[in-house]
Amino acid sequence: MILDLDGMRVYFPYDRIYLEQYQYMRALKRTLDAGGHSLLEMPTGTGKTVCLLSLITSYQHANPGCGKLVYCTRTVPEMDSVMQELGNVLGYRSEMLKKEREAAEAAAEAEGGDEGMDGEGPGGDQGESRKRKRDDPPRPKSNNDTHRMGPITQDGGAGGNGSLALCLSSRRNMCINKRVLRESDREGIDSACRSLTASWALEARKKKSGRGGPPGGSGTAAARGGDDENCCTYFDQFREAGEAISMPSGIYDLESLKEWGKGRGWCPYYLTRQAINHANVLCFNYQYMLDPKVAKMVSKELEAESIVVFDEAHNIDSVCIEAFSVSIHARSLEQATRSLGRLSGEINRVKASDASRLRNEYQNLVQGLVEQGLLGGASDEVALESSVLSNDVISEAVPGNIRRAEHFVAFMKKVVEHLKARLRTVGGPTGGVSSETPLAFLHRMVTATGVEAKPLKFAYTRLSSLLRTLQVTSLDDFRSLTDVADLASLVATYAEGLPRFAIIMEPVGQLSEPSIELACLDSSLAIAPLFKRFGSVIITSGTLSPIDLYPKLLQFEPCVSESFSMSTFRPCIRPLIITRGSDQLPVSTKFQDRGDLGVVRNYGSMLVEVCAAVPDGVVAFFTSYAYMESIISEWDGMGIMRRLAKSKLIFVETKDVVETTLALDNYRRACDSGRGAIFLSIARGKVSEGINFDRHYGRAVIIFGVPFQYTLSHILRARLEFLQSQYQIREQDFLNFDALRQASQCVGRVIRSKIDYGLMILADSRYSRYDKRSKLPKWILQFLGDGQLNLSTDTAVAQAKSFLRIMAQPVDQNALKQVLLTEEEVRRLA
Predict the structure, then answer these.
(1) Could you read off the pLDDT of 216-250 as tens digits, one per residue?
(2) Would you state the torsion angle of the CA atoms of residues 524, 526, 527, 528, taken in this order, to the nearest 10 degrees?
(3) Does the reported pTM lie above 0.90?
(4) Residue 39 class from Cβ within 10 Å (0-12 exposed, 13-18 middle, 19+ buried)?
(5) Which of 519, 546, 540 is CA-nearest to residue 733?
């Protein structure tokens, strides 16, 4: 249908629309009209993605001066899903514009005296067909419904106006060179690619071949898959094409990009980065916008009028903090020492064979970072990487005492040795956990080593320059040294003013050895440049509640902040809060209660009874790996696991990604076969964030306990103190906010559409308290009545059986139509 929102035509690719979809698009339209930012919570499974794409692409179509749509996702599958939905949206718009052009041509012919077409025009059979379709509820999309990916040249190109939509991802997801793809991991693929595409590698091949142009330009090698061991023909042909490179209008997901790249003999990884400037829609991972070290690759190509969307952004503050945090362990420092030794050897080798390279680098460093090309922009240009490097660092030359390569290596050796000494002190008999501000840490470093503070600001960039000068391709071998340089640069840059970082030194860190953690405390550091630069940044998810805390955490003022309810023709969600076992003993994962055998037994009996009553798939979430392992061990001793296995096959999430992926595949197979299965998982784990358990894969989700963070964590304590002192966010308010959004994310996995249904079981006595349950999303609270609070296990199982019996009946199509609005009903709403 084509909607009219305040005079703007919105091309929506379905014949009916839910009320919350219409309300959501109106809120988006207000955001874009105001040129501000927004926080929008949309119920899970109600078509949030299609609303975003329909409204914003229609806004771009109606306002040619509008910039790009930059759609940020968390995972590659989400990225592909977005591109498929975009294909539907632009395909529908192209179809409608074509019909309008044909109608205009027919009207012009009629005015010219030509005879009509007796009802065979746009208002004939096609109109009747669309009218018939409007009476049916939207059906799930099949492959035949999806607009094709790749180049689209007919009917004015993609969207009817020649739109170009691209995905950006890592080399691992975009490379088509067979030799490079033989590497097993991301670092190996990156290294192999650099060894074939770096400027010095190209120069060496030119000298060896004796030819003036780039080697490997023959189509024959490309047809073999670019498998020349010494070159990448895809990259060589891409360079050879130069300014002649252009991408036709179309919608390119990762697979279609690789197929099109193979057909043209061009590298899709480098092709997309060159085509950014010509794209109307970009889709990539959060890190391309939030991590300054990655963002600089795309930031200069994005105009200020661009519209930035962060989808599934309930954890965006955590992503921002991770982008600015650095962790260094004792073994990392040993590796950094070895890396410095390698660099010294390489410097001596280059001095003997090609000293001019080091001399040229020295002269470039005298000119400063911008002139050398390390920052890729004019000194007065606002760039995303400026959030790491202060203005004086961007504009000044590199200090003289680290310009020469050998001087810089000696400089870094002092830094590494100082960090080793600090860790020895922490791990010694008189040591212990230590927390310092960046200023105090920097003062101790300067005093102990004699290094100056100013060169430390340049450490990361100076190391990057040296690695490029020495023609190092395997950057992963220097990761530990890079982390040390990153820590030094961040500490020196943010030493003055408000302490937004904390340096935590622990005798037993994450790897059971002494560690130094540079913990970012202020999540606004990473995202502030985006709010400043772009007119509209939209943060949206199904689980943003309580929504009022995000403006404080991210330090911005949204012009629109809304949470929407779910329109439904039946109560497809049944939240149940279980506070007691069948023996009326309270259940909770509070530290003082979680080890109680009565609580452990009641949780086990609860899970057995739920699995016996619920068909197909059940997903259970625990608060941590340690708690899951301990309670499963206890259950096994009590015989509960044997009882559980009688009704469901049991699968468990582990810290190993491959094992968890295999377990998920087998879990789905068990559900498909009718045997039924239960998946034991972790709140805050990979499964809770990116996996959907729709339809029979998740008829019930049960979460044992409230997933609070580990409150004895020194990093968390430092952040809580920062939030209290700087933003007046109370400790308990933040902990409750964080725990409840994680719980909402877990239980939200169970519902993915209006015709889907499932149980949401919150098993902890604390959920019955108002201060906890009131922080659940609005669309969950609307189904949570008084009769579903403070339940015992047997009462909850009885309610579950009744709910599943009702939901298992065939969907009432007439009732479904009542929540699906037609074009006429939408016009009346307006």
Answers:
(1) 444 444 444 444 567 889 998 998 887 778 888 99
(2) 70
(3) no
(4) buried
(5) 546
